[in-house]
């Protein structure tokens, strides 16, 4: 039974992944543990319906899904008052999304390339309120903090700058991606066009871009918005 051997309380897990082969395979792999039971949802929408009726010890979300990504799903879950630990279970590099994921309320991360033992350990740590990070992510975050001064040596993390976009700014970016003007966005959020202009100025500064098109492109590269936001 792994590191929590002897624990009788059932750990209930909601696994959300829009690839059935991966989702069903992960469910079978996890349920080899006698004290773990997995409910599998093929879409974020199905997951939200389930969460209206059931509670879980831990939530395991894929990062990139159609309609709603793992970041948006986590925010939605937190807005529902659900405080169960959320682990992001993905095959993609999450370095670009780290700050946004933590801000959304994610508790930890586990790669789909990890072994079964590593996955089970991550789940148990999550239940215990501990955070587990892949070594590759830990190394990446460490390198992002490196600042080297001198003429002969410099360290540049290409396009991996620290970007922290708020949920409000994320919503504005989604509207920009749809091609809406400042006036149209202002009407959507019941704000003045000047306020939206100010918000976009701040967003441009954070993303280090100069145009709306650049902001949309970079936001997609960093996982702040998805192609489904168009």
- Choose one word for the global shape: elongated
How many separate helices?
10
Could you give the order of strands across the largest sheet? 2-1-3-4-5
Written as H for each helix and E for each strand, in order along the chain, the element string is: EHEHEHEHEHHHHHH
The overall average pLDDT, rounded, is 78
**Biggest beta sheet attributes:** 5 strands, parallel
Distance between the termini: 45 Å
Class of secondary structure makeup: alpha/beta
Write the layout of secondary structure elements.
Layout: E1 11-16, H1 20-30, E2 36-41, H2 44-53, E3 58-61, H3 70-79, E4 86-90, H4 98-104, E5 108-111, H5 116-127, H6 135-144, H7 167-177, H8 182-189, H9 193-207, H10 212-221
Helix pairs in contact: 7-10, 8-9, 9-10
Key structural traits:
elongated; 230 residues; 5 strands; 45% helix
Structural commentary:
This protein has 230 residues and is α/β, with parallel strands linked by helices. It is built from ten helices and five strands. It has a five-stranded parallel β-sheet with strand order 2-1-3-4-5, sandwiched between helices. α7 (167-177) crosses α10 (212-221), α8 crosses α9 and α9 (193-207) crosses α10 (212-221). The longest helix has 15 residues, at 193-207. It is elongated and about 60 Å long. The N and C termini lie far apart (45 Å). 34% of the residues are buried. Residues 1-7 and 143-162 have low confidence and may be disordered.
């Amino acid at each position: 039974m792994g590191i929590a051997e002897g624990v009788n309380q059932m750990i209930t897990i909601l696994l959300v992944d829009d690839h059935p082969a991966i989702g069903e395979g992960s469910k079978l792999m996890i349920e080899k543990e006698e004290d773990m039971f997995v409910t599998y949802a093929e879409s974020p929408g199905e997951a939200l319906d389930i969460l209206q009726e059931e509670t879980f010890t831990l939530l395991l979300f894929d990062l990139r899904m159609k309609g709603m990504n793992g970041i948006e799903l986590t925010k939605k879950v937190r807005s529902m008052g659900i405080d169960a630990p959320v682990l992001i279970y993905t095959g993609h590099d999450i370095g670009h999304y780290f700050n946004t994921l933590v801000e959304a309320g994610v508790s930890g991360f586990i790669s789909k390339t990890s072994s079964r033992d590593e996955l089970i350990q991550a789940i148990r740590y999550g239940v215990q309120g501990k955070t587990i990070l892949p070594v590759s992510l830990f190394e990446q975050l460490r390198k992002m903090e490196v600042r080297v001064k001198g003429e002969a040596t410099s360290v540049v993390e290409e396009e991996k700058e620290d970007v922290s976009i708020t949920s409000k700014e994320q919503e504005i970016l989604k509207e920009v991606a749809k091609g809406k003007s400042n006036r149209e966005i202002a009407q959507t959020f019941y704000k003045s066009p000047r306020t939206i202009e100010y918000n976009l100025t701040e967003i441009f500064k954070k993303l280090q871009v100069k145009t709306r098109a650049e902001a949309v492109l970079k936001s997609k590269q960093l996982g702040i918005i998805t192609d489904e936001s168009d």
